[in-house]
Design brief:
By secondary structure, this protein is α+β, with helices and mostly antiparallel strands. It has three domains: 164 residues, no CATH class; 124 residues, TonB (TolA/TonB C-terminal domain, 2-Layer Sandwich); 191 residues, Alpha Horseshoe (Serine Threonine Protein Phosphatase 5, Tetratricopeptide repeat), CATH 1.25.40. 33% of the residues lie in helices and 21% in strands. It has 13 helices and 17 strands. Strands 9, 10, 11, 12 and 13 form a five-stranded mixed β-sheet that branches. β12 and β13 form a beta hairpin. α10 packs antiparallel against α11, α10 runs parallel beside α12 and α12 runs antiparallel to α13. The longest helix has 19 residues. The radius of gyration is 27 Å and the shape is globular. The N terminus is likely disordered.
């Protein structure tokens, strides 16, 4: 019988770690953050037959099913024990990931939890405290093993701060003493204040009017529609004594732009003066707290007729687009070494699938600027870091869906004075330009962005390819072929129309 070996990339364990007692304060709250950046030169390779995992799933089906079960149990523990910091109450809250490295010894004890690439202190402390609590409870993991012998190994756990977790952590956010919930006259619209109607009937009429307003004005977010996301967002809001809506608070968020769309709808109420008549108490106008639900339900013509074969990967990252970019900045490493030509930059287009355990399986990779093996390995290393961070459970996705990423890579700032700054941002602007140009009336706007990108990076194959295709598809074949023949000459792996070769 052949043993299947798993390769773990792990940091060299430094001496002198703080103990749990040293990094824990009273009531189990971490008072000091142990952080680390893992130098590439200190990485070692550890061969194991089985990786360390959270306990409770041995003997349940196949190894893959046991791993999925263990991850689910670990997620449940984190969700139950993760205390959201007060900072998460702020209106600008965004989902985020904190990565914690810990060591699981041969007896399954966890040690030395430390935050990798520390970010916002309050979130780092909260994530670290979960594993301090785990150790205090004496929870023993199933250790990694090689040839049947348990091993001491490091492992990395991603702690997610989500909208759903925030809603559970702060079920009621105070509004102040000048806000009423029960009043003599409830806020309403003129059409609802009919003689003989009781308060609950007036309120029901107002909420029905609101639902009509939402249905008429809601713009379904593109990412949510793409993956088939549906659901409800529950909202508390205040109708002020001046008839204006304020203090809009989402009690949950579906993600993928749905929360932002709800906020836009409420902002628009004041812009168009939707017509709220303020509530009254003892004959005086007062501020009144109301709640409603915004429904995100795709219309038949908006629904995909079949599962998606290809999809942009960024929206399905658990921390969504902004979280993906932060993750990319932290974990995409510029290659080093004597055989690596310095100061190169370029783009990789990647396609991958996500297997049942959440691991990335690359199906295709295009190196636009012929950067070579070392850069390809950096991209592969980054993708490995994203294992477990893709939410593939949306309605329009399947096990066969392939996810697409454009990944720019450039030298760190200040290391190559001859390389213009802002390369990644310019690649993204070029992509935006190509997208804008798909609308005929905005072709020139899209080309303006693409022209600017080409002027900044005239030798970049990705940017030239984007502009060439836009020109070619819009009847300007001669101009388009100038760009496309350039990139075809530089890199034969890039597909261009035959007439441009």
């Amino acid at each position: 019988m052949t043993n299947t070996k798993t390769t773990l990339k792990a940091a060299l364990i430094f001496c002198g770690f703080l103990s749990f007692q040293q990094i824990s304060a009273q009531d189990g709250v971490a008072s000091a953050i142990v952080t680390a950046k893992r130098p590439e030169s200190l990485k070692t390779i550890i061969q194991v037959d089985k990786e360390a995992r959270f306990p409770g799933c041995s003997g349940l089906g196949s190894v893959s099913e046991q791993n999925i079960c263990a991850q689910s149990r670990l997620d449940d523990f984190i969700e139950k024990n993760l205390k959201y910091p007060e900072l998460a109450k702020e209106q600008d809250f965004k989902p985020r990931i904190v990565r914690v490295e810990l060591t699981v010894d041969a007896d399954g004890r966890i040690m030395y939890p430390r935050v990798l690439d520390g970010g916002i202190r309050e979130y780092d402390l909260a994530a670290q405290a979960v594993f301090i609590e785990m150790a205090k409870q004496g929870i023993a993991w199933e250790p990694a093993s090689l040839n049947g012998q348990p091993l001491k190994t490091p492992t990395i756990v991603n702690v997610r701060f989500s909208w759903q977790g925030r809603a559970k952590a702060f079920p009621s956010l105070g509004y102040g003493d000048d806000i009423f919930e029960l009043v003599d006259e409830v806020p309403a619209f003129a059409s609802c204040q009919q003689p003989g109607l009781k308060d609950h009937q007036i309120k029901a009429c107002a909420l029905e009017y609101l639902e009509q307003y939402f249905n008429q004005n809601l713009n379904y977010p593109a990412d949510a529609q793409m993956v088939g996301l549906e659901g409800d967002i529950h909202v508390d809001f205040v109708v002020g004594k001046d008839g204006k809506v304020r203090d809009v608070r989402l009690k949950n968020d579906l993600g993928l732009g749905c929360g932002e769309e709800v906020k836009r709808l409420f902002d628009k109420m004041n812009e168009v003066n939707i017509g709220w008549i303020p509530g009254e108490e003892d004959g005086q106008k007062v501020n009144v707290l109301l709640n409603t639900t915004v429904h995100f339900k795709l219309k038949p013509n908006q629904k995909a007729k079949e599962k998606l074969a290809f999809v942009d990967a960024k929206p399905i990252f658990y921390a969504e687009r902004s979280g993906y970019e932060e993750f990319l900045n932290n974990y995409l490493k510029y290659p080093k070494g004597e055989d690596v030509k310095p100061c190169q930059f370029g783009v990789f287009d990647v396609k991958f699938k996500v297997n049942a355990e959440g691991a990335v399986e690359v199906t295709d990779m295009l190196d636009y600027n012929n950067l070579g093996k070392a850069y390809r390995e950096s991209i592969e290393g980054f993708l490995t870091e994203t294992n477990g961070e893709w939410n593939t459970k949306y309605a329009n996705l399947s096990a066969e869906t392939q996810y697409m990423l454009t990944i720019p890579i450039a030298p760190p700032l200040g290391t190559c004075p001859d390389v213009p700054t802002g390369y990644k941002e310019m690649v993204y602007k070029a992509q935006d330009g190509a997208k804008i140009a798909e609308v005929k009336s905005k072709l020139n706007d899209g080309l303006e962005l693409l022209d600017k990108a080409v002027r900044s990076y005239p030798s970049d194959n990705k940017i030239r390819h984007l502009r060439g295709l836009v020109l070619y598809k819009n009847g300007r074949q001669v101009e388009g072929c100038v760009d496309l023949s350039f990139v075809a000459k530089e890199n034969k792996a890039i597909e261009v129309p035959k007439t441009c070769k």
